[in-house]
Design goal:
It is a single chain. By secondary structure, the chain is an alpha+beta fold. The protein folds into three domains: about 110 residues, Butyryl-Coa Dehydrogenase, subunit A, domain 1 (Orthogonal Bundle), CATH 1.10.540.10; about 100 residues, Beta Barrel (Butyryl-CoA Dehydrogenase, subunit A, domain 2), CATH 2.40.110.10; about 140 residues, Butyryl-CoA Dehydrogenase, subunit A, domain 3. It is built from eleven helices and ten strands. Strands 1-4-5-8 form a four-stranded mixed sheet, with helices on one face. Strands 2-3-7-6 form a four-stranded antiparallel sheet, with no helix packed on it.
């Protein structure tokens, strides 16, 4: 397990206390029932606590901390299924600018991300499955700028983000672009997702961009995109870890209190074995997630392998734990009145996001030479 600094421990404990008081699962239910993507008041409080600027350098208004620290916060928000732009703005969009942004681009967006004035996201996939190698959205040169045509599917926070990092196919490769959410020719279709999060399909119809919209080198965005996706995968794995831990805690408490056939069901050996399986897998996944986050912070050579290991483990674990949560709660676990269904639905979406277990097992095996 990672050895946390005093600052990391304080931030994690503060996040744990805040989500329990201000953003419990009951708050997520209210957001879901309202039809909104997230509660702006909750997002404002998160920004006031500095969470949106955790990895933003100090010169741009942030805290200049590392990804491991942000991962600790994402883990706590994952525990209560908190819906907010934190992941896509504070991690994904911010990382895109840190990895490839020009000074002008950083000055334009990082202070706004850190303060919560603006939100961002990433648009990469174009079909139902994660396939960053199959980008077809085209960006053609037009004068000194570019014209974008194509579609992006299931973009998280795609209907509300102020700026979208778009991966497009150019003449010599892949290029990343910063596209304003209100760009002429961009259509955003909000979708009703099973996990009640804000996602959208995007359509680009002759979207004109200046040369300064390119994020990094033209035609040279493939490596940047891969590094960005690995940061997103590791951060999402941290959020999933928190949800797994909470699902397990709730289920374990139920096993200790529910009486059936005159006995507490936690005394049944078959259920004890299943709980032990979840616990050991949870500890193993924690090690994998922390290793991935630490590797990114240290710019290690084995980042891709460790990230795929972490995402595959987190996907498999949450699939298991969410199923067990429903089954072990019996009839009540099948109802909307219980939180089990909310965790199961979120698990299925998070599993698929940025590559599911099968995608990352295959990637890990390839990276390891098998």
């Amino acid at each position: 397990m990672a050895v946390l600094t005093e600052e990391q421990t304080m931030l994690r404990d503060a996040a744990k206390a805040w989500v329990a008081e201000k953003s419990p699962v009951t708050a997520f239910r209210k957001v879901r029932d309202s039809g909104a993507a997230y509660d702006p008041a909750v997002w404002k409080e998160m920004c006031e606590m500095g969470w949106a600027g955790i990895i933003v350098p100090e010169e741009y208004g942030g805290s200049g901390l590392d990804l491991m620290t942000l991962g600790l916060v994402l883990e706590e928000t994952g525990r209560t299924l908190t819906a907010s732009p934190l992941f896509n703005t504070a991690l994904v969009a911010t990382s895109a600018l840190l990895l490839a942004g020009s000074e002008a681009q950083k000055q334009a967006w990082l202070p706004k991300f850190a303060s919560g004035e603006a939100t961002g996201t990433l648009a990469v996939d174009e079909g139902p499955h994660h396939a960053p190698s199959k980008i077809t959205l085209e960006a053609k040169k037009a004068g000194s700028g570019f014209v974008l045509n194509g579609k992006k599917a299931f973009v998280a926070d795609g209907a509300t983000a102020d700026v979208i990092v778009v991966a497009a196919k150019t003449a010599g490769g892949i290029t990343l672009f910063l596209v304003p959410g209100n760009a002429k020719g961009l259509s955003r279709q909000a979708l009703k997702a099973v996990d009640s999060r804000g996602v959208a399909n995007l359509s680009f119809d002759n979207v004109e961009l200046g040369a300064d919209a390119a994020l990094g080198a033209v035609d040279g965005g493939a490596a940047t995109l891969e590094a960005l996706l690995d940061r997103a995968r590791a951060g999402l794995a941290a959020e999933m870890l928190g949800a797994c831990a909470q699902s397990f805690d709730v289920t374990l408490e139920y096993l200790k209190t529910r009486v059936q056939f005159g006995q507490v069901i936690g005394t049944f050996q078959a259920l004890q074995h299943r709980a032990a399986k979840m616990f050991t897998d949870l500890e193993l996944t924690r090690s994998c997630v922390e290793a991935a986050l630490t590797a990114i912070d240290k710019n290690a050579n084995d980042v891709p392998a460790l990230v795929s290991l972490a995402k595959a483990r987190a996907s498999e674990l949450w699939h298991l734990v969410s199923n067990e949560m429903v089954q072990m709660h019996g009839g009540i676990g099948m109802t909307d009145a219980h939180d089990a269904g909310l965790y199961l639905k979120r698990a299925r979406v998070a599993e698929a996001a940025f590559g599911g277990a099968a995608f990352h097992r295959d990637r890990y095996a390839t990276l390891m030479g098998y």
